[in-house]
């Protein structure tokens, strides 16, 4: 056993030389040979953990750090190794916890103190970024637009049609939010809910781009007759326009004063305007930047008689 311990120490020294020269794979191999001869030596696992960390074999490095702690729980080095591996894994809160235990065993270690300070800040930033991602993925448009289906059912007197139209609006808005989150923009377009039985889908598409419509009063005015004709000839049941606020030169419906003014006039974002023969709605989806990530907020309903982006494109009919 004594001879085995001596050979393990020699292998450890050779491993240390390889480690210092940057030959981390050879160092890890030598530490492994030493461990076979002296399997209860915490320092060998600690050193191999460091070599594995440099080789970016993080799971192996973490396992060796845990073994180091198990063999020698009062030794700061095991917790230090664990903290370094968790830092590389970007598990900053867990890394801070490991370094704090290391600091308890050696309060004079300034490197550990610096890591605790830096990683505590990174952990806060990571949590905030995670919160932003949660907010990005948890915008419940169905909840925000829940009253739309009820209102449609009351006006149409047809629960199935109301469900179809409501789902259409929610799908359009969800798609726009996803694109906005991914790219920071949406293309101005009108989405049409076509009739499955009557629409000639070879001739009429479910989406019409209207980018030029907002450049001036003239282009805006010339777009409307086309859209009105499209709704008739395509047998559309409803339509839903999406347009980013940033490209709209006309009409700038957020520029009003008094009753025309609204609280989100300084916010970036996009409009969603719903059109049907018996009901019209408009929402603004505000957007902010959080931790360098685009974040859509919940849609804000607006008064369509004041803030419409497009005038009525369906011929108005009476409710059922």
What does this protein structure show overall?
- It contains twelve helices and seven strands.
- By secondary structure, the protein is of the alpha+beta class.
- Strands 1, 2, 3, 4, 5, 6 and 7 form a seven-stranded antiparallel β-sheet that branches.
- It has helices at 2-20, 24-37, 42-54, 58-71, 76-88, 92-105, 110-137, 141-144, 146-156, 159-183, 217-233, 304-307, and strands at 189-193, 207-209, 238-244, 268-275, 280-290, 293-296, 300-302.
- 55% of the residues lie in helices and 13% in strands.
- Helix 3 (42-54) packs parallel to helix 5 (76-88), helix 5 (76-88) packs antiparallel against helix 6 (92-105) and helix 6 runs antiparallel to helix 7 (110-137).
- The mean pLDDT is 91.
């Amino acid at each position: 056993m004594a001879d085995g311990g001596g050979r393990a120490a020699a292998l450890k020294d050779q491993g240390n030389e390889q480690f210092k020269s940057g030959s981390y794979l050879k160092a890890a191999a030598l530490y492994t040979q030493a461990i076979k001869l002296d399997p209860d030596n915490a320092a060998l696992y600690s050193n191999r953990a460091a070599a594995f960390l440099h080789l970016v074999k993080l799971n192996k490095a973490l396992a060796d750090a845990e073994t180091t702690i198990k063999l020698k729980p009062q030794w700061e080095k095991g917790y230090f190794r664990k903290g370094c591996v968790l830092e590389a894994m970007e598990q900053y809160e867990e890394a801070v916890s490991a370094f704090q235990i290391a600091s308890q065993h050696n309060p004079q270690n300034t490197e550990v103190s610096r890591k605790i300070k830096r990683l505590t800040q990174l952990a806060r930033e990571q949590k905030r970024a995670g919160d932003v991602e949660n907010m990005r993925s948890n915008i419940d448009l169905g909840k925000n637009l829940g009253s739309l289906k009820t209102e449609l059912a009351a006006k149409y007197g047809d629960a199935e049609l109301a469900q179809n139209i409501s789902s259409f609006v929610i799908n359009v808005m969800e798609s726009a939010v996803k694109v906005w989150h991914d790219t920071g923009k949406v293309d101005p377009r009108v989405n049409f809910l076509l009739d499955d039985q009557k629409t000639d889908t070879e001739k009429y598409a479910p989406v019409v781009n209207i980018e030029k419509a907002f450049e001036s009063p003239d282009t805006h005015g010339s777009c409307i007759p086309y859209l009105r004709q499209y709704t008739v000839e395509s047998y559309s049941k409803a339509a839903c326009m999406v347009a980013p606020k940033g490209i709209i030169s006309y009409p700038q419906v957020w520029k009003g004063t008094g009753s025309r003014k609204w609280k989100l006039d300084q916010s970036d974002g996009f409009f969603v305007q719903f059109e049907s023969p018996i009901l019209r709605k408009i929402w603004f989806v505000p957007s902010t930047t959080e931790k360098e990530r685009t974040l859509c907020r919940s849609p804000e309903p607006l008064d369509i008689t004041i803030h419409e982006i497009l005038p009525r494109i369906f011929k108005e009919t009476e409710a059922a």
